[in-house]
Amino acid sequence: MRKVFFGFAVLQLVAVLAQFYLATFGAFETPHPAPGDPDAAIGYHAMNGTMIMPLLSLLTTVVALIARAGGKLVGLSILPFVLVAVQLLVIFSLAEIAGWTENSTTTGSLVVLGFHALDGVAILAVAVILVQQARALMKATAGTPVAERVAA
User: Fold this and answer.
1) 1: which residues sit within 8 A by CB, 6+ positions away?
2) CA-to-CA distance for 79 and 69, rounded, in angstroms?
């Protein structure tokens, strides 16, 4: 089960890396789409960030619990979900309070929206650490006799 946990940790990292690619993919679309355009390239970034990444984080957390990975790894597994929630519920809300709309920005809203990127970097760091820790757990378990693994 710890190999499955490692696999989910890798999938989560791939989704986070894809998120950075999709952000750039959408940011450099020319001509710039109208605000709210459902065909805009940035929509892939939004879909991955609001649906795929949180779902993978939840699934990875469930697998970590089943694999008895320990509290630290369970916490790291759910942390991307929490950080995405911070993006959606805190950062974007504060940006709106500071004057951001789909059609315009203010200096204050741009300052707040800068934290969107920093939060994304934090999600990436967590995903990398999770893969490293899941790999170490998997390798440590692989050398353990079956009787000891059952007792654990």
Assistant:
1) 63, 66, 67, 68
2) 15
First to last CA, the chain: 13
C-alpha 77: how far from chain center: 10
Instruction: Give Cβ neighbours of residue 21 (< 8 Å, ≥ 6 apart).
Output: none
- Any idea which residue has 């007792």 for tokens? 151
- Say how far apart CA 8 and CA 29 lie, in whole Å: 31
Distance CA 45, CA 54 (A): 13
Mean pLDDT of each 10-residue bin along the chain, 152 residues long: 95 97 87 78 92 97 95 96 95 93 90 95 98 93 55 49
The CA distance from 13 to 34, in Å, is 31
- Nearby residues of 111 by Cβ (< 8 Å), 6 or more positions away: 98
The pTM of this model reads 0.86
Location of structure tokens 């999938």? 11
